[in-house]
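Predict structure. Chain length: 166.
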Amino acid sequence: LLSLARTDDTERKPVLERTDFSYLVADSVLSFEPLVYESGRELAYDTADGLTVLGDPSGLTQLVGVLLENAVKYSSPGGTVSVRLEAAGKWVRLSVANTGGPIAPEDLTRIFERFYRGDPSRHGDGGHGLGLSIARSIVEAHRGKIWAQSENGVNTFTVLLPCAKA
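Prediction complete.
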């Protein structure tokens, strides 16, 4: 709730600095590695080196953590969590995917709303429907885009952030 209150504070602007997003994502993935393996899932990642964004390192770390936690929580037992970071023109693209039950088409945009919980079977997972709302707020504060896709048993959350100018 504190994170949401901070995003609502229009007076408070994040301090944006040149940030090595490649390092930040790789570091976040490595810190989640034990959790993924302990949960009986596999972790695959491919992070391009040297990708920088103009951002708030703590907010970006929180963003990656929310997406990883969500992927682990909703992946199938024995499933896979995949992370990919790559350059995409003037953007840096981060994709966090997991194998698991599909997200209903009508939920794909609504899951970023505060307190929204789509599939009733997921309501006993201990979450409150805030993580993806926080992720969206962080992405918007960085002038980026976020969306979800659900196809062929894979749920993918994609973030585009503008590259830092050299």
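Summary: Helices lie at 2-8, 21-38, 57-74, 131-141.
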